[in-house]
Design goal:
Layout (H helix, E strand, L loop, with lengths): L3 H10 L8 H21 L14 H5 L2
Length: about 60
Amino acid sequence: MKSKKFLKQAFKSNGMPVKKGDVKYIGMLFTNVAKEQMTLKEFPEVKNEVPMTIVDKGELWYD
């Protein structure tokens, strides 16, 4: 996670207000985004697959 001090300075330098309690969650958000980007680098074919969408569960059960 990015350090709290770094995040506070980044927001302050861009003129954006940030609440003290939000810094923790913003840091976790950045961490999660970075992890997912690494996943896409390791498995680039994932973004090429079309996800299956189930509209009606009954379609699967009684088909």
